Amino acid sequence: MTQIEKVLYTGKTHTTGGRDGASRSSDGNLEIKLSSPGTSGAGTNPEQLFAAGWSACFIGAMGLAARKMKITMPAETAVDAEVDLVNADGAYFLQARLNVSLPGLEREVAQAMADAAHQTCPYSKATRGNINVVINIV
C-alpha cells in the first residue's frame, strides 16, 4: 500500500435508503435522489455517479499528461464513461469502458495521452486489477 504524504481533499456524503434513497454532501453542493438501475425511479444510480466521477477525473489526468507531453489538449475533449453492473455466478461486479474523444490529435498521440492518464488517474488506479476496463479512442 502507498504511504500517504498528505490528504488533499475528503469528499463526505450522507446516504440513506440505499439504491432507492437519497444522498447529500456535507457541504450541501450535492443533493440527489437515488434509484435502482433500470427502474422508473426519479433518481440517479451509483453506476452513473461512478461514471461521472471517473470521466471527470480522467480528463484531469489527460490534462496532466498533455502538459508533460508538451501538447495542447483539445477544448472539445470528452470522455463517455460506461459502467456496467453485471452478474456472474450469482455475484455482482462492475465493468467499464472509457470512450475518449480528443478531436484533432493524431490517433497515436491520443492513445499515448489516454494511456498515461490511465496510469495516473486515481479512479483508474482504484479499479486496476479489480474490474474489466477498456479504454477506447473514438
Task: Describe the protein's architecture and organization.
The chain has 138 residues and is of the alpha+beta class. It contains three helices and six strands; from the N terminus they run E-E-E-H-E-E-H-H-E. It has helices at 46-69, 107-120, 122-127; strands at residues 13-16, 22-25, 31-33, 78-88, 91-101, 132-137. The strands form two sheets. The chain has a three-stranded antiparallel beta sheet with strand order 1-2-3, with no helix packed on it. The chain has a three-stranded mixed beta sheet with strand order 4-5-6, with helices on one face. Strand 4 (78-88) and strand 5 (91-101) form a beta hairpin. Helix 1 crosses helix 2 (107-120). The longest helix is centred in the middle third of the chain and has 24 residues, at 46-69.
